[in-house]
Design goal:
There is one protein chain. The protein is an all-alpha fold and 356 residues long. It has two domains: 1-48, no CATH class; 64-344, MetI-like (MetI-like fold). The chain is 59% helix and 0% strand. The two termini are 45 Å apart.
Length: 356
């Protein structure tokens, strides 16, 4: 039966059977009569559910800059992990073997005779990035140095994230209490100490802090305050939301509320800051090693490679350029990944659509 208005005018047919069409009734069949789009409509079976992490993965996959940075970082990680095999089978040099007869030698391929040697001579004859002041191959030391620098970055990120997350959770959950006051006092005290001078003093006094593990512990223990402060502000507002109040109302423990309900809601912030901390730790290690209080020789790192070339920039610029390129490419890739993750983890940011 067709629908009629109170004034007697006949309304548009709502279903296909009202218009005299036999068969199964559906709104999609009379889409044109109602002015509704019908072309390309999907059924319920064709519509796939997209989770939050699925949307994040899709954003990252369509972000060409971030994906290029991920592949660049993977390349740097792979060559550093495969450093022993590359040094033995492709380069033919040990990173700590010295030969003063070829000290500060320019890259072999810079001359016509050297190019012939590099592309036709057996392994162990070509120094692709030259040699340092002790006659050691710079490229071999560079890929070996990445093992220490990247390991320090990962260690520092793990230590600072652990301390920062725990302190931030406790401080935010117990905001405006004496527990929060104690944590804030510790943060203010550590934040008022010039960290660079403290790192130099401790690393120069205790030999343990000149090892990768000791230096990572020192940098990580002094680098968690910023994350803790940021999480405190976020958790201070999250703890009063309905699902948190409901969890406490049904008897959930404090630790369950913090780690089960609050922590997942700030995980995006933690992931992004952890990525940036890796790059910051690599730069910090390079700076300390450059000042002579970081990783000590003969173990190579990108920082102490630059420290060893302090007075040779005009005579042997490759000693500065080579480790500088390693540091630049790695930190650039990490910062681009962190920036891409920050956009992908934000549910309000859509690929190609400006934020409203």
């Amino acid at each position: 039966m067709a629908l009629h208005t109170l004034t007697g005018f006949q309304a548009l047919p709502l279903f296909a059977s009202d218009a005299g069409v036999t068969g199964r009734s559906s709104l999609r069949e009379v889409g044109p009569a109602l002015g509704l789009p019908h072309k390309g409509a999907k059924s319920a079976q064709e519509v796939k559910e997209r989770t939050y992490w699925g949307a994040v993965t899709s954003k990252l996959w369509h972000d060409k800059i971030t994906m290029s940075a991920i592949f660049l970082l993977l390349f740097m990680v792979i060559i550093t992990l495969a450093a022993p095999w590359i040094a033995d089978n492709l380069l033919g040099f040990d990173p700590i073997d010295t030969n003063l007869r070829i000290r500060n030698r320019a890259p072999t391929w810079t001359t016509a005779e050297g190019r012939q040697i590099c592309f036709s001579a057996p392994v162990g004859q070509c120094h692709w990035l030259g040699t340092d002041e002790a006659g050691r191959d710079v490229l071999a030391r560079g890929i070996y140095g990445g093992r220490i620098s990247l390991r320090i970055g990962a260690y520092v990120a793990g230590i600072s994230m652990t301390l920062g997350v725990i302190m931030g959770l406790i401080s935010g959950y117990y905001a405006a209490t004496f527990i929060d006051d104690i944590i804030n006092a510790v943060i203010q005290t550590l934040g008022s100490i010039p960290q660079l001078f403290l790192l130099i003093i401790l690393a120069g006094t205790f030999p343990f802090f000149r090892t990768p593990e000791g230096l990572s512990l020192l940098i990580g223990a002094l680098g968690w305050m910023g994350l803790s402060r940021l999480l405190r502000g976020q958790i201070f507002s999250i703890r009063e939301r309905e699902y948190i109040v409901a969890s406490r109302g049904i008897g959930a423990s404090i630790w369950r509320v913090m780690f089960r309900h609050i922590l997942p809601n700030v995980s995006s912030i933690i992931i992004v800051i952890a990525v940036f901390d890796i790059a910051g730790a690599i730069i910090a290690e390079a700076g300390l090693s450059y000042l002579g209080v970081g990783i000590g020789p003969p173990n190579p790192s990108w920082g102490n490679m630059m420290q060893g070339s302090l007075g040779n920039f005009t005579d042997a610029p490759w000693l500065v350029i080579a480790p500088g390129i390693f540091i630049f490419l790695t930190t650039l890739a990490i910062y681009l990944i962190g920036d891409g993750l920050r956009d992908a983890l934000d549910p309000w940011v859509k690929t190609g659509v400006p934020r409203k």
